[in-house]
Amino acid sequence: QSAVTVPRDFEGCSTLRKYFGQLHYLQSRIPMGAEQEAAVPITWTEIFSGKTVTHEDIKYEQACVLYNLGALHSMLGAMDKRVSEECAAGAFTYLRDHFPHSYSMDMSHQILNLNINLMLGQAQECLLEKSMLDNRKSFLVARISAQVVDYYKEACRALENSETASLLGKIQKDWKKLVQMKIYYFAAVAHLHMGKQAEEQQKFGERVIYFQSALDKLNEAIKLAKGQPETVQEALRFTMDVIGGKYNSAKKDNDFIYHEAVPALDTLQSVKGAPLVKALPVNPTDPAVTGPDIFTKLVPMAAHEASSLYSEEKAKLLRDVMAKIEARNEVLDQFMDSMQLDPETVDNLEMYSHIPPVLMEKCAALSVRPDTVKNLVQSMQVLSGVFTDVEASLKEIRDLLEEDEAQERKLQELLGKVPAPQGSPPPPSPSLAEVGKECSKYLEVHEKASFTNTELHKAMNLHIGNLRLLSGPLEQVRAALPSPTLTEGERWWCHLPRTWLGFGGTWHSCSGHPVPSDDKQVLQNLKRILSKVQEMRDQRMSLEQQLREMIQKDDITTSLVTTDRSEMKKLFEEQLKKYDQIKVYLEQNLAAQENVLKALTDANVKYAAVRKTLAEVEHKWNTTVQTLVASYEAYEDLMKKSQEGKDFYTDLEGKATKLLEKARAACQAAEANRQQILEK
């Protein structure tokens, strides 16, 4: 009861460990396992689905307690008890390695791997924080940060598993996005400190590329951080200030002072992670943790002790095999990360066969508004007409004023008055002076508005063609979008080395598959080899799972009861032979990796030119789509500004017309006055 209602503190952890240990002592004496005589139904609630799960197996009780121990440690870790992540990882690791994964979905191998790597990643984060606060060497900080990335990549792979995604539901996407954000963020931190090390070593070209890479990765992290709390956003902004400042300073120094060549990032040695945290081991028989064995007097311990020894032999076998698998997996993961080849998107030819949904949406919207282009053109024509009328009125006013000025000058000369200085007109009448002043004001307003009007016409001319295209038949829209043209040529033969890729020990030769030199066949060959890589991965995981299940079900307690102690070692050796066949299969799978990756390297070399072509076409495709969408979105703005222009010029036209009438009247009055003077 105490273990079920455990307090959320380290006392609660102690309670769970004690109960777990006593369950271990109990199950070693009383037949309470699955389908055994004393088995009783045990019920717990699955953490993600909320379903109740019942098994008549004491190991299920142990597994649930151990899961809760890991969960409680993770909660304490979140409360700033920094050592707890390693304790949590230890509990989940022991659960993964010593208990069946079929009890419930939240104890599946993938979920436990996810939990372990999340805990180790956070523990490594704490160590990274301390190393930076302690001003440790830049290279060490970079390696510690790189290991954080490695842990989160493992967690991300577990999240991408279809079973994991199905179990977690909506939170799978949120978790995956957060983990991916952390991957990019800590990769940026690693490259920031590699850049610092390059700076210390006065390798100024390397410094620039490391800071640039850090900046690129941080930008990716910022994209993935949308929706995260303000504290995260603030941390990202701070990091951007640091990395951005470092990059700008390094680039400026190199451009103007050092002039060192900036190497490509992939030519530099990759940053290998330094795992400085580990899952703290769980020992169910440690009396300092579990307290005294309350079942010690029930049965002799000899059979149990022998069974424990055999379990250790099995665990040793599993550790040896897993060390080899993990070493090859690490090589494979690093290789595939460097290749940046996704079997699902290695060719994106399918996207070019149809109009993207965002563009279809715009075409559909315009199809129910057939007069879109016509309305825009008419609106701009009306605007041009009003603009022209205003310009004509203002020109006529200016001409009238200039003519009046000329007539006034002639009159002054006829009267024999001293002419005004060169360039200075005679003073006009008050009414004409007022007209001139207003005309100047309108001309100034018209000139400023003329620039806006010109820009508006430019914008319309820029978008009108795209709007006509979007309003037209879909076939024309599709034809306007770029698409790749892949070549076809002579064929040659690529030899993928003979490799073992079957569960029954069958040899499948990949040698002699025709790989034509044309682009399409280069793509097909690359996809075929990538499928072989995935097949190798899947087979490896399946064989590992089979081995774990065999070890889990391998109980020789009955045999141990009737075996003499002196014969125990021989019995162990005989029993362990049952694993030889699956070990052979695994060895063959691991040995095949080198050949498969060599073939993938060769295929990737041939794919380089095709990849470049596809990338360029994809960029053009995206640019074209964005341009067309922008034209659609600009339509309403153009119509609005066109109407505003019409309203403005209509108002100005009214004022200019009135001013023209006033100018005519004033000029006529001035002319009449001059005539009277001449007659006198």
TrEMBL record:
Indicate whether Transmembrane helix appears among the record's keywords: no
Kindly state which keywords UniProt assigns to this record, in alphabetical order.
Coiled coil, Cytoplasm, Endosome
The family database entries (InterPro entries) matched by this protein are listed as: ALIX_V_dom (IPR025304), BRO1_dom (IPR004328), BRO1_sf (IPR038499)
Q: Which Pfam families match?
A: ALIX_LYPXL_bnd, BRO1
> Signal sequence span per UniProt?
none
Which GO BP terms apply?
A: early endosome to late endosome transport; endocytic recycling; protein transport to vacuole involved in ubiquitin-dependent protein catabolic process via the multivesicular body sorting pathway
State any GO CC term: endosome
The listed locations are: Cytoplasm; Endosome
Q: Could you list the residue ranges forming a coiled coil in this record?
A: 387-417, 526-553
Q: Does the keyword Coiled coil apply?
A: yes
Q: Which residues form the BRO1 domain?
A: 1-332
| Entries under SMART domains matching the protein | BRO1
Q: What is its main location?
A: cytoplasm
PROSITE patterns recorded = BRO1
- How is this protein named in the record? PTN23 phosphatase
Which organism does this record belong to?
Aegotheles bennettii
Q: Which gene encodes it?
A: Ptpn23
